Amino acid sequence: MSKSPPIAFDFVALEARILEAARQAFREVAAAHPEQQLCAFALYSDDGAMTVCPSINTIEHLTQRQRQHPDDAAFYKFATPEWRFEATGADLAFQSICDDVRGYVLALADFDGKPFTRFRDSLFETCLRVLERLRTEEPFRGDNVLLVFAVSDSDPDIKTELARMKRLNAAHVVAEFRRWTKTWR
Asked: What is the pLDDT of residues 75-113, one digit of tens each?
C-alpha cells in the first residue's frame, strides 16, 4: 500500500505569518539600534526549503565593509550573509515558521521529488510575494531599503537571481546587481 503525501500546505496563512514576522524583525532591529540606518532587508531560505529567515543590513556596516574591501563593494551590498544582522529579529515567529516548513519537508521525504519541488518553489514564491508587499509599505517604499530573496546552500542561477531582483528593486539597483553577476564567471 502506497502512502499519500501529507495534506496541502497552507501558503496563504504562511504568507501572512512571514509578512508579520518580517515587519516585526525590521522594527525590532531598528528599535534596538536607533543610531544605525537600516538599508537592506532580505528573506532567505535554503535549498532544502527548511528555513525562512531575515537578514538586515545597515549603512554603517555596509560602508565599513566596502571601505575595507573596495574591490568587493557589490558583494557586501548584495550578499546577505555578510550583512550586519543575519537571522536577527522576530526570533520566535521565524523559529515557528521554520519548524512548520521543516516538518512538512520531512513528511515529504517518503515521496518522489515532485511534491518537494512543488513545495520548495511555492515557499520561495511566497517569500518573494512577502517582499513585494513590503515594497509598498514604509519604510521599504522607494530606494531607501534594498530588498533581496536569497537561497543558501546552492549555486545561484543568474537569470533567476536577476528576475527576483527585478521584482523587488528599482532598475538602477538591478543594473548594479547585473554588473556584479558578470564577475561570477
From this structure: 999 999 999 999 999 999 999 999 999 999 998 876 667
Say what the pTM is. 0.94
Residue 185 lies in a domain: no
What is the phi/psi pair of residue 139, to 5°?
Answer: -95, 15
Q: Which grid cell is 104?
A: 512538512
Domain that holds residue 56: 11-154
Beta bridge partners of 149: 43
Residue 131 lies in a domain: yes
Distances (CA, A) of 75 to 45, 64, 167: 19, 13, 20
Kindly state the percentage of the chain with pLDDT values over 70: 95
In the numeric block, the cell 512543488 is attached to 118
Q: How many domains does the chain have?
A: 1
